[in-house]
Amino acid sequence: MWIEHLARDIGALGQEENTTPERALDQMSRAAAWGVPGCSASLVVLWREVVAPDGTGRHVVSDYGASHSDLSEAFEYQYTTDQGPTVEAVREMRRVRVSDVLRDQRWPGYTSMAVQCGDRSSITQPSKLPGEAEDRVLTFGVHSGRADAFDEEVVTHLTALLAEHAAMALHTAGRQADAARESAHMRRAMSARTVIDQAKGIIMHARGCDADTAFAALREVAQRNRKRVVEVARDLVAENTGPQPRTRGRGRRG
Question: How far apart are the C-alpha atoms of 140 and 43, rounded to whole Å?
Answer without folding.
Answer: 6
